[in-house]
């Protein structure tokens, strides 16, 4: 197929590479032209000067950008996808945005004869590189079935959740669980260390009981290694939690755990940790407990 791809960052770059490796022709545009340099002169890739130009050639376009205003600009703004789209174009947005924003963008694109799926992902940079992402999809079932073979190039667990916006609801649920899970593991490790007990031995024991989780396993190991290189940046998790709390306010819901965790991420980003991985919540808790970051041995 002729595939458009917009958003060649930490996640989008390897995802576009998988589609190219699967034999699809790629049509690329980027808001930062330097992002395209790595793709120049690659077989099967054509670079364009706008999102509208991408839409003129593509049968389906993926977008992976930061937030709802970016999705709206790329799809419906000046020289956006809608400006160049042929009837029947499918747009799959894999960004994480508010469910209401996804519904609005989907409705406005449909008015122009463009099909839309909201398909946010979980799995971080590693999942994007390994093509093992979890993909949560909202939109028409018929459009989802047409897009499924392409989604299977990018992920392992691909679920149609419901109508437009439902994928973003599922992603919000994911972000509640992962943020609180990361905060819980960080709290447990900080408690163990402050008590004079090796967190590595604690993790080893807990992985054999009901406290076991993928977060304790994978992120817990990275915390022990002090590996805060971003696979998913803290400021992005903060942004996603803001979406959760805004939706909770709109729905009149009480989400006490998510609210407390949001404050932790606000503090992490506000203290300069936004570009680190979200597991840097551990460092924030250590600082609040009077520890300094001295490699593998934070000490009072």
From TrEMBL:
Residue positions of the active site: 171
EC numbers: 1.1.1.60
Domain 3-hydroxyisobutyrate dehydrogenase-like NAD-binding: start-end pairs: 165-285
A single GO molecular function term of this UniProt record: NADP binding
Keywords (A to Z) from UniProt: NAD, Oxidoreductase
Superkingdom of origin organism: Bacteria
GO BP terms, alphabetized: organic acid catabolic process
InterPro entries cross-referenced by the UniProt entry: 3-OH-isobutyrate_DH-rel_CS, 6-PGluconate_DH-like_C_sf, 6PGD_dom2, 6PGDH_NADP-bd, HIBADH-like_NADP-bd, HIBADH-related, NAD(P)-bd_dom_sf
Residue intervals of the 6-phosphogluconate dehydrogenase NADP-binding domain: 2-162
Homology family: Belongs to the HIBADH-related family.
Stated name of the protein: 2-hydroxy-3-oxopropionate reductase
UniProt source species: Sterolibacterium denitrificans
């Amino acid at each position: 197929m002729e595939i458009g791809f917009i958003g060649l960052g930490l996640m989008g770059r390897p995802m576009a590479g998988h589609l190219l490796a699967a034999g699809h022709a790629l049509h690329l545009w980027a808001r930062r032209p330097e992002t395209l340099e790595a793709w120049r002169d690659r077989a099967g890739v054509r670079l364009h000067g706008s999102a509208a130009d991408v839409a003129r050639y593509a049968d389906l376009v993926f977008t992976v950008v930061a937030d709802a205003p970016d999705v709206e600009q790329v799809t419906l703004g000046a020289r956006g996808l809608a400006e160049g789209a042929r009837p029947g174009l499918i747009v799959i947005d894999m960004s994480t945005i508010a469910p209401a924003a996804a519904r609005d963008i989907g409705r406005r694109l449909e008015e122009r004869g463009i099909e839309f799926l909201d398909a946010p992902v979980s799995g971080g940079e590693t999942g994007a590189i390994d093509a093992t992402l979890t993909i949560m999809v909202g939109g028409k079932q018929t459009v989802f079935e047409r897009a499924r073979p392409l989604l299977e190039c990018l992920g392992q667990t691909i679920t149609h959740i419901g109508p437009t916006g439902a994928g973003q609801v599922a992603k919000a649920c994911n972000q509640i669980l992962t943020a609180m899970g990361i905060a819980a593991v960080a709290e447990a490790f900080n408690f163990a260390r402050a008590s004079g007990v090796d967190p590595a031995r604690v993790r080893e024991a807990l992985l054999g009981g009901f406290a076991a989780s993928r977060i304790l396993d994978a992120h817990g190991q990275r915390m022990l290694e002090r590996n805060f290189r971003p696979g998913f940046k803290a400021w992005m998790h903060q942004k996603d939690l803001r979406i959760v709390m805004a939706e909770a306010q709109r729905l009149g819901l009480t989400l006490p755990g998510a609210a407390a965790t949001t404050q932790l991420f606000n503090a992490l980003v506000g203290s300069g940790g936004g570009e680190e991985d979200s597991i840097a919540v551990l460092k924030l808790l250590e600082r609040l407990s009077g520890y300094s970051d001295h490699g593998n041995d934070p000490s009072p």
